[in-house]
């Protein structure tokens, strides 16, 4: 090939290369300009996701388009403001509160809720769970629920507490009697008794009774009754008694263990005793003398006699109303129609005394009467007609020796 031909060929190749480079440079330039223009037409948006802010550039028309463009998944429980169908405006801030699952346990029964709320009280209100002042909640109602995402609630119920003499209605969330007493701040003393087993489970409207038991020592002085000793006395009429010496009560100190339940004594046990003064025995003489009434042989005045005086005399029969037929001295007044007996005041004429009565004869003082006081006597006759005939008169009486 000639030199001219080679030169022309080289020149043509060089021109083609320069043209290609120019075209490529133009393409790059146009692309850069287009990219700059594209980027420059994007809107700047701040997305605040749970307190963390990030600036995003977008051509999205709506908030929902933005989340789709960026591949951000929104759950149905999330809260986005402004709403998803709001138009994108450059410089706007989009708040995205992401919901979380919270477990709520009420007396062991669990339920799960999705929420964007952070404060325990708001979460419970959103879940329509009511909490009273007596309930126990695992977190304070005005604080945020922690990373555990769990709220435990123990619902309170009413029951009756009887503590000794005091009875009242109380609220409790406890499950056993022991836990309940601890919750109420109740201290049990050594001998106190709870009317339920401490491990028993308590339920609404239940009743817990505490019996306050107290053991005390009581020392008291008490009297000791005296004994009565009887002695036979032949000088006294049978059935009569006479105190020879008066009895005196003794004194003893006794120590008791007293058990009280709710302040009331339920048991008293004698532990020891000490005699402080011995009792003195009472001695009583009991009469053994038997008086025998004799049949009178006449009513003439005896030749020899002792003291004599006048008395007012009436008459009675062994069959009078209220009469037993037996005299105060034990004489059977109905055994012999010829008995001569008079009722006397023993302070004037002692029972058993032999007497002579004017108009009646020899007799024995063998009876008494409620109306016979002082110098009065009542003579025994066998019929009411004889008594009426005798009437009331003043007669002379002699004490026979």
TrEMBL record:
Pfam family, any one: 3D
Keywords associated with the record: Membrane, Signal, Transmembrane, Transmembrane helix
TM helices/strands, residue ranges: 20-38
CC per GO annotation: outer membrane
UniProt-listed PROSITE patterns: G5
Biological process (GO), any one: peptidoglycan turnover
Domain G5 residue range list: 210-290
InterPro entries hit by this protein: 3D_dom, 3D_YorM, DUF348, G5_dom, Resuscitation_pf_RpfB, RlpA-like_sf
Any one Gene Ontology molecular-function term assigned to this protein's record: hydrolase activity, hydrolyzing O-glycosyl compounds
SUPFAM superfamilies the record matches: Barwin-like endoglucanases
The name this protein goes by in its record: DUF348 domain-containing protein
CDD domains: 3D_containing_proteins
Origin species: Ureibacillus endophyticus
């Amino acid at each position: 090939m000639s030199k001219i031909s080679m030169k022309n060929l080289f020149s043509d190749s060089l021109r083609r290369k320069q043209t290609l480079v120019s075209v490529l440079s133009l393409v790059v330039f146009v692309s850069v300009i287009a990219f700059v223009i594209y980027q420059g037409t994007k809107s700047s948006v701040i997305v605040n996701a749970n307190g963390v802010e990030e600036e995003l550039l977008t051509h999205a028309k709506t908030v929902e388009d933005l989340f789709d463009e960026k591949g951000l998944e929104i759950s149905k429980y999330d809260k986005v403001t402004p709403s998803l169908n709001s138009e994108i405006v450059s410089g706007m801030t989009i708040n995205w509160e992401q919901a979380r699952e919270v477990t709520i346990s009420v007396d062991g029964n669990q339920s799960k809720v999705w929420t964007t709320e952070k404060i325990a009280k708001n979460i419970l209100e959103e879940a329509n769970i009511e909490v009273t002042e007596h309930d126990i909640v695992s977190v304070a109602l005005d604080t945020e629920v922690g990373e555990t995402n769990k709220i435990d609630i123990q619902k309170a119920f009413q029951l009756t507490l009887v503590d000794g003499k005091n009875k009242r209605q109380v609220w409790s969330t406890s499950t056993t009697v022991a836990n309940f007493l601890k919750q109420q701040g109740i201290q049990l003393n050594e001998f106190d008794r709870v009317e339920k087993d401490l491990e028993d489970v308590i339920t609404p409207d239940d009743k817990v009774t505490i019996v306050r038991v107290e053991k005390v020592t009581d020392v008291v002085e008490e009297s000791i009754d005296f004994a009565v000793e009887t002695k036979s006395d032949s000088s006294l009429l049978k059935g009569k008694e006479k105190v020879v010496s008066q009895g005196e009560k003794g004194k003893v100190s006794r120590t008791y263990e007293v058990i009280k339940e709710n302040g009331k004594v339920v048991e008293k046990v004698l532990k020891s005793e000490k005699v402080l003064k011995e009792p003195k025995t009472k001695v009583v003489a009991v009469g053994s003398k038997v008086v025998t009434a004799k049949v009178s042989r006449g009513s003439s005045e005896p030749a020899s006699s002792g003291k004599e005086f006048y008395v007012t005399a009436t008459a009675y029969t062994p069959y009078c109303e209220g009469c037993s037929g037996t005299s105060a001295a034990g004489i059977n007044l109905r055994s012999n129609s010829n008995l001569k007996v008079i009722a006397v005041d023993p302070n004037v004429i002692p029972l058993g005394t032999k007497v002579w009565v004017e108009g009646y004869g020899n007799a024995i003082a063998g009876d008494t009467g409620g109306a016979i006081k002082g110098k009065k006597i009542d003579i025994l006759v066998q019929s009411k007609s004889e008594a009426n005939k005798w009437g009331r008169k003043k007669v002379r009486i002699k004490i026979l020796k």
